[in-house]
TrEMBL record:
It comes from the Bacteria. This is Coenzyme A biosynthesis bifunctional protein CoaBC. Pathway: Cofactor biosynthesis; coenzyme A biosynthesis; CoA from (R)-pantothenate: step 2/5; Cofactor biosynthesis; coenzyme A biosynthesis; CoA from (R)-pantothenate: step 3/5. In the C-terminal section; belongs to the PPC synthetase family. It comes from Acinetobacter guillouiae. Coiled coil: none annotated. Keywords: Decarboxylase, Flavoprotein, FMN, Ligase, Lyase, Magnesium, Metal-binding, Multifunctional enzyme.
Length: 421
C-alpha cells in the first residue's frame, strides 16, 4: 500500500529515550521517523545519557535535545509545557522499568515524567528490560495501570539479551516502531477523510453575518453579529465534501477556502439571493445570519440633518428568509438558528415548529463567553418531530469545533429514516 508521506510533515513526535542498552536503536528510530516526514524532538533521561550522547540525537533530528525539566532558554523556563503542547505523539523507546513505574505512580521529578502528566497527546511506551524485570509482578501491575490510563504499550520481543538471558524484554526494531507510528497517523488521516465526506455531493447554501437596513445614505439599523459562526460552518461543510455558497452580510472575515461567497447587505437582498440559489439547486439551507427584523419604511435619499431632540423613523417588518425558503414546494433540508437572551430552548423549539424547519440550533447570546464577538460557542440542537431524534447539547468549544458537530448532526438527520407522524 502506498502512502502520501507529505501528510506527516505537520505531525510532531517526541521520542523519549530512557536508560538501557536499547538506546542505540533509538538513534536509528529517529532516522526512520524523519524519513517518513515527521518532525522529531528527542527527550533524554539521565540514564539514557549514560548509553548514548545527546549530540547524536541532535544531529539526527536536526533539533536541540531536551534533558532538563526547567529550561532557562525556554519561555519563562517552562520548556516542558511548551513541549507537551507541541507533541502530537510521545513515544518512549526504550521505556525502562523505572520510567514505567514513575508513569504509573504519577511522579513528576524529571522532564519526561512531567511531560507525561502535562500532555494531551497520545503516549506510547516500548518497554525494554531484562526478562525477569519484565515478568516481575510490580512491572506487570504498573503496565496494567498505564493501559487503564490510556497509554499504548508496545509489547517487547523475545530473544537474546545483553545480560545473557533469553526471553521477553527486547525493544522492537526501529523500522517496526516507525512503521507503527506511520500507520497510526495514516489511519487517523483516513478517519478524518471519511468524516469530512459526511456531506459529499451536497450543495449547501449558508447565510451569515448581520444585515444592514438603511435609514439614509450614512446611517443604518444593524446588530452585533460578526458572522464567525456562519463562516466556520461554511468551512466545515466544504471540508465535509459539500459545494458551498455563502451569502454574507457586511462582515470583515476572510472567505473560507474554496467557498463561493456572495456579499449582500439588506434583508431583502439576502432573500432575493437565497431564492436565486434555491432555483439553482440546493440540498441544505443553513440560516445563521442575524437578519434585521425590521427595515425603514422610507429610506431618505439624503443624509437626515440633526434637528430637535427626537427622530421618528417608521419601520416595517422584514420577510422571514428561512421561513420563506421552508415554504417552497422544492424545499431543501432547512437548518435555522436561534440567538436568544432568555428562555432559549423554549423559543427555539417554537421556531422549529412555526417555521417548519428540519433542525434548529440555539444559543444564549447574553453570555459574554459565547456571545456574538466570542470565538467560542455552545449550542443545543433540536430536530423536527418526524425525525424522532433526541436533542443534542454541544458543549462550549471553539466555533470551528461546534461547526464540525453541527455538520455531523445535519448528516445524521439527512440519513435518518423519517417516521410518519
Amino acid at each position: 500500500m502506498s502512502f502520501d508521506l507529505s501528510v506527516f510533515s505537520n505531525k510532531n513526535i517526541i521520542l523519549a529515550v530512557t536508560g538501557g542498552i536499547a538506546a542505540y536503536k533509538s538513534a536509528i528510530l529517529v532516522r526512520r521517523l524523519k524519513d517518513y516526514g515527521f518532525n522529531v524532538r528527542v527527550v533524554m533521561t539521565k540514564g539514557a545519557q549514560a548509553f548514548i550522547t545527546p549530540l547524536t540525537f541532535q544531529a539526527l533530528s536536526g533539533n536541540p535535545v531536551h534533558t532538563e525539566l526547567l529550561d532557562p532558554e525556554a519561555e519563562a523556563g517552562m520548556g516542558h509545557i511548551e513541549l507537551a503542547r507541541w507533541a502530537d505523539l510521545i513515544l518512549v523507546a526504550p521505556a525502562s522499568c523505572d520510567t514505567i513505574a514513575k508513569f504509573a505512580a504519577g511522579l513528576a521529578d524529571d522532564l519526561l515524567s512531567t511531560l507525561y502528566l502535562a500532555t494531551k497527546a497520545p503516549v506510547w511506551v516500548a518497554p525494554a528490560m531484562n526478562q525477569q524485570m519484565w515478568a516481575a509482578k510490580p512491572t506487570q501491575r504498573n503496565l496494567n495501570t498505564l493501559v487503564e490510563d490510556g497509554v499504548h504499550v508496545i509489547m517487547p520481543e523475545a530473544g537474546s539479551q545483553a545480560c545473557g538471558d533469553v526471553g521477553l524484554g527486547r525493544m522492537p526494531e526501529p523500522e517496526d516502531l516507525a512503521e507503527q507510528v506511520k500507520n497510526y497517523f495514516h489511519q487517523a488521516q483516513r478517519a478524518i477523510a471519511e468524516k469530512f465526506g459526511l456531506l459529499a455531493g451536497k450543495r449547501v447554501v449558508i447565510t451569515a453575518g448581520p444585515t444592514r437596513e438603511a435609514i439614509d445614505p450614512v446611517r443604518y439599523i444593524s446588530n452585533h453579529s460578526t458572522g464567525k459562526m456562519g463562516f466556520a460552518i461554511a468551512a466545515a461543510c466544504y471540508s465535509a465534501g459539500a459545494k458551498v455558497t455563502l451569502l454574507a452580510g457586511p462582515v470583515s472575515l476572510d472567505t473560507p477556502n474554496a467557498v463561493r461567497r456572495i456579499n449582500v447587505s439588506s434583508a431583502i437582498k439576502m432573500l432575493d439571493e437565497s431564492m436565486h440559489q434555491l432555483e439553482e439547486g440546493c440540498d441544505v439551507f443553513i440560516a445563521t445570519a442575524a437578519v434585521a427584523d425590521y427595515r425603514v419604511a422610507e429610506v431618505s435619499e439624503h443624509k437626515i440633518k440633526k434637528a430637535g431632540d427626537e427622530l421618528n423613523v417608521s419601520l416595517v417588518k422584514n420577510p422571514d428568509i428561512v421561513a420563506t425558503i421552508a415554504q417552497q414546494s422544492k424545499r431543501p433540508f432547512m437548518v435555522g438558528f436561534a440567538a436568544e437572551t432568555r428562555n432559549v430552548e423554549e423559543y427555539a423549539a417554537g421556531k422549529l415548529v412555526a417555521k417548519k424547519l428540519d433542525m434548529i440550533a440555539c444559543n444564549d447570546v447574553s453570555r459574554a463567553d459565547i456571545g456574538f464577538a466570542s470565538d467560542q460557542n455552545a449550542m443545543t440542537v433540536f430536530f423536527a418531530e418526524q425525525y424522532q431524534m433526541e436533542k443534542r447539547d454541544l458543549e462550549k468549544a471553539s466555533k470551528q469545533e461546534i461547526a464540525q458537530q453541527l455538520v455531523e448532526a445535519i448528516h445524521d438527520a439527512l440519513h435518518h429514516e423519517i417516521e410518519p407522524i
